[in-house]
Specification:
Elements lengths: L3 E3 L2 E3 L3 E3 L8 H10 L3 E2 L4 E2 H5 L3 H6 L10 E5 L3 H13 L5 E6 L4 H4 L11 H14 L5 E6 L9 H10 L4 E5 L13 H10 L5 E4 L5 H11 L3 E4 L9 H9 L10 H19 L2 H15 L7 H8 L4 H9 L52
Length: about 375
């Protein structure tokens, strides 16, 4: 297995933590980085918020002093604004790597023409990549995308060739369409087809990696150059230890007992308090992680409820102390986690599918709902 080469950057092991809104802040990235190396991407931020120097955005792109390489994902729909944002990142040394989000399937993004809807507009997609790469200086620019809007509107092979032509350093493909959201089974064959189509640059596979064995199987079956892990590490930062060992050819599976999980939960919440500089904010934000950490363990509903509604770190720690520390890692806890339901349809701007080569830029409010993150 080889290192992942992104322009002048070399990443080992070839494992990437997917940017996840409200998840991959410095606290969670730190927990994952301690387990093993790789590329750990911060939460998605909008290009418009960045160029407007939104205060919330600048807090979100905070990196720890020892965090290297610093990886930042941008969401944008306007080539000019994307170019300005990337130039800011390069000139002000805000990050070492820029990833562009063309994979987000949530309605508030696609209905404005962003995320996984945008690659359908081939010329607009090209224009955004051209501006990003042209303003990046020596920073590598990568793309994360989906197969397309739905099975009747697949775009990933066209988008892959455009990305190569415009100088993108690597492509990550989530093997689902936008309409699938996170439902169904990821199409790893599409990852293999993309790798065959763009042999010039690395292709990373994303979708249904719940264990190191899944990652190994994806790389073997598709020939991809690395893997991107998102929902599989929710409540399981130690998955990156398994992935690092797999890349070294070592069989290792971390299976912490409930006491160890509780200690990680405590540390995660403490790091969030440092990240947000607010204990109430940190404890409230941590609530969504409780179910992921405790998945499969036998914990009474009352205690689960207390942990998920704690208002202080001391209150959270009191609940954690009541967990059965010696309880073994449960069977089946490596199964899918996070939302999995597909959608009935993809919300798109009126007439979006009429002309795949239309260069019209979506309106400025396409970034309003996500401005500041």
């Amino acid at each position: 297995m080889e290192s992942l080469k992104l322009g002048s950057l070399e990443v080992w092991p070839p494992v990437v933590l997917a940017p996840m809104a409200g998840i991959t802040n410095t606290a969670f990235r730190g927990l994952c980085r301690e387990q093993g190396g790789g590329l750990f991407v911060c939460e998605m931020i909008t290009t418009r918020a960045l160029v407007e120097r939104n205060a919330k955005t600048f807090k979100m792109i905070r990196f720890e002093p020892d965090e290297s390489p610093r990886s930042l994902q941008l969401y944008g729909v306007d080539p000019v604004t994307v170019g300005r944002a990337v130039r800011m990142i390069a000139e002000e040394d805000l990050a070492d790597h820029v990833d562009l989000n063309f994979g987000c399937p949530v309605p508030k993004v696609t209905r404005k023409g962003g995320g996984s809807a945008l690659p359908y507009k081939r010329n607009l997609f090209r224009a955004i990549l051209r501006e990003a790469v042209g303003n990046a200086g020596t920073l590598p620019v990568t793309v994360k995308m989906r197969k397309g809007i739905d099975d009747d509107h697949l775009t990933y092979l066209d988008a892959g060739r455009i990305a190569v032509q415009e100088g993108v350093s690597a492509i990550a493909l989530h093997g689902r369409t936008a309409i699938q959201h996170y439902g169904g089974i990821a199409d790893w064959e599409a990852i293999a087809r993309l790798k065959e189509s763009v042999p010039e640059i690395p292709v990373l596979g994303n979708g249904d990696i719940w264990s190191a064995a899944d990652a190994r199987r994806m790389m073997d079956e598709t020939g991809c150059d690395g893997v991107v892990v998102g929902r599989g590490c929710l409540g399981r930062p130690w998955l990156f230890a398994d992935l690092a060992a797999m890349c070294e050819g070592v069989e290792k599976t971390v299976r912490p007992r409930l006491g160890e999980v509780a200690a990680t939960m405590d540390r995660h919440a403490t790091l969030l308090a440092e990240c947000f500089e607010s204990e109430p904010h940190a404890v409230a934000d941590f609530r969504k992680h409780v179910g992921w950490y405790l998945k499969g363990f036998t914990v009474g509903s009352g205690l689960r409820r207390r942990l998920a509604t704690s208002e202080t770190l001391d209150g959270l720690r009191e609940g954690l102390a009541e967990l059965e520390a010696g309880q073994a890692w449960p069977e089946g806890a490596d199964l899918p986690r996070g939302k999995t339901n597909p959608r009935d349809r993809v919300q798109l701007p009126a007439g979006w599918l009429d002309d795949p080569y239309d260069l019209a830029v979506p309106s400025a409010d396409a970034e309003n709902d996500t401005s500041g993150g």
